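Quick entry, no commentary yet.
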Amino acid sequence: MFFFYSRVSTAEQNPSRQLESFKTIGHLKPENVYIDKIQGNVPFFERPEAIKLFEAATVSLEDDTIVIDSIDRLGRNVIDILRTIQVFTDNSINLKSIKEGFQTMVDGHENPMAKIVISVMASIAELERNKIRERQAEGISIAKASGRYKGRKLGSRQSNEKLLSKHAIVVQKLKKGMTIQDIAALTKRSSKTIIKVKKIITQDKYTISA
């Protein structure tokens, strides 16, 4: 079965160009089109329509393909894109990108060419992470030299509300009764984080929203 995923950054933007691109693939049915109107820096599995899409694809008993207009529809963060693709592959879901011209699975097996592309992306992501670390280290060194760096305040920690908002996908999966192990595999969150979220939402003060 073919599923189609479109993302635009704001409610004012029109996804019609992406929908026209989907028509070149065929198999386009309105009920299998999912459109998120959300910023690209929001991780894929924290987007409302993306979550619905993934659940529909994992429930389907057919060989499923998720079609996107271009790889940046999955996200702006290369690391998050790679994680998303890996979750698809782990669940035997093929990803087809029209602009980049590749799909991640062929005849139920990982596509070697796609693996090469993904490996290159991973290398680029590693370079980006190293550059960020270097810039952070340089900034801290300069701040320390000028007496402006004070470090993190003792006892400071993320508020419960902010933590739940950041890990909304974990909250949703806990609500569905999924195990910590399964949620960790799906969302790529650590078990420690999931346990922390579960502890918060089981307190009387907090409830799991729909």
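second:
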Amino acid sequence: MDARERLITSTQALLWERGYVGTSPKAIQQRAGVGQGSMYHHFAGKSDLALAAIQRCAEQIRAFAEDRLSGSGGAYERIESFLLNERDVLRGCQLGRLTQDPEIVANPDLHRPVDETFDWLRRRLATVLAEGQASGEFAPQLDPEDVAATIAGVMQGGYVLAKAAGSDEPYFCAIRGILGMLALQTIQARRALS
């Protein structure tokens, strides 16, 4: 891995652990194993490097979500696969963490990829829900956009509850809850067809 790549991956990890303010250029350089000259050779400064790390994180989250949401099976199965896939719940969501960082929120360039990724996720979930609705898997009264926003909100809230409890159980409890509610939509759709 070259110095530029090490700088990006180190910054990603530090942003997740410490946030923007707690991530100093010196800490990035130490974790990446590079000198100050190397850092400033590849990036104009901390903000430029943070942007590259946030964009990388956004790409990884989108790829992870897309892999599960475009997989095989019906809409419910794909959403279930996405929500129940193994993850480090107690560390929380990398991008969700950044929404609480005042420096990220105040900087439009750094905030943009965070907002765009959450918007993409809601739209992608809504598309899968609409596909399920069109195939008769979900009840006609289901609102894909509202349910997609609810799923995203439950995920992020689940991370917060898990961190507060020091256990991943509150996260999975919230996920099982939203999946149970979604399963009711499939039962209602079946009843409507019979």
